[in-house]
Amino acid sequence: MSFNVQGHGPGSSEHDFGNAKWKNQIAAVIKQSGASIVLLQEVRLNSENDINPLIEILNGKGGKWKSTTSVKYATCSYDLNNAVLYDEKNVLLVNDLSKKLNFRAYKYDQDNNVADDCRTYQFDKNHEQVLEFSFPKNSAQTFYVVNVHAPGPGSQELRKEKEQLENLYRHYKRKPIIIAGDFNMRRREFVPSSAFGDAIVDGDSGMYADANSLRTTLSTAGMKISLANDYDHFIVSRNSLFNVSEQMHHVFSPRKKESYDSIKIGGTTYKSTEEYKQGVSDHLPIMMKLNFSANK
Predict the structure, then answer these.
(1) Do 185 and 231 contact (CB within 8 A), yes or no?
(2) Is there a contact between 84 and 97 (Cβ–Cβ < 8 Å)?
(3) What CA–CA distance (Å, rounded) separates 47 from 69?
(4) Which tens digits make up the pLDDT trace of 197-236?
(5) pTM for the whole thing?
(6) How far apart are CA 75 and CA 170, in angstroms?
(7) Residue 164: its pLDDT value, please?
(8) Each residue of 89-129: pLDDT tens digit?
(9) Which whole-number Å values give the CA distances from 213 to 74, 200, 265, in the listed order?
């Protein structure tokens, strides 16, 4: 699952783990998705420990959820961090590549000076997470998960970020790789004429046969919960370890919907764009289900 939880910008101050209702709503969305790996963007974090209240709710009695965040290496403001949550009942985190020198050069860490930027992957805010997981747990067969939150639409920084993601995909696709998150780009902007031409982008059949993807950001128009841009995506390399068993869809519906009369999360029902934005986020969460080969 991937979800930009809008910790930054107008109306985002309540989207904080100190807000019990909002925290419970995010946990409810994760539980509803049934995901084993959850990618969050725009997470308000000053330290790794700030996300623990969410983990505690997910674990309840006997759960095995854990997390890792971009706090220790990101150069963004505290409310633009990334976080990945994973259920150790199903998957095991074996490596956090974003903590290594090709992503995190010492001089760049010290003063964020572009002249000293010798990182192999020069991400704008250095908050992109590149993680290696094993499935089943402790298996020798591993795969990569990349959590993305790209700069704003149409910016020069966004074009550079896309180039960095393309380079990373080329270098790491020797193993199965999943790149997901908020790209701030529509699907038609990088399908099919990009380095991702050999990948599954959002889905590989049916509603993803053309260049248009699923709308995921909220529109200001109308009284319904209406949607505008397709900025959130999954990019999955074709491989022998897993295949797509459910195309990308909103957590709240398996169909390609462009509006909702209402969305129910936990005990709260949202009936308008404004209600949902205030109570949850300005994005809808997306998910994709993968079927792993039994013989791996």
Answers:
(1) yes
(2) no
(3) 9
(4) 899 999 877 777 777 789 999 997 667 899 999 999 999 9
(5) 0.95
(6) 25
(7) 94
(8) 999 999 999 988 788 766 666 666 667 788 889 999 999 99
(9) 29, 12, 24
Q: CA–CA separation, 243 vs 164, rounded Å?
A: 25
C-beta neighbour count of 189 within 10 angstroms: 16
Residue type, 262: S
Q: How far apart are CA 263 and CA 115, in angstroms?
A: 48
- Asked whether residue 40 carries a pLDDT value surpassing 50, the answer given is yes
Query: 177 near 143, Cβ under 8 Å?
Result: yes
One-letter amino acid at 232 equals D
Q: What's CA 296's distance to the chain center, in Å?
A: 26
Q: How far is CA 202 from CA 146, 186, 240, in A?
A: 15, 11, 18
Coil, helix or strand for 164? helix
- Whole-number pLDDT of residue 296: 43
Q: How far is CA 68 from CA 7, 89, 118, 147, 290, in A?
A: 17, 16, 24, 11, 22
CA quadruple 198, 204, 210, 215: dihedral sign: negative
Determine contact, residues 191/211, Cβ cutoff 8 Å.
yes
Give me the residue label for tokens 């079927």. 291
The residues, ordered by sequence, that sit 6+ positions from 213 with a Cβ below 8 Å of its Cβ are 186, 187, 188, 201, 202, 230, 233, 248
As a whole number of angstroms, the distance between CA 17 and CA 69 comes to 14
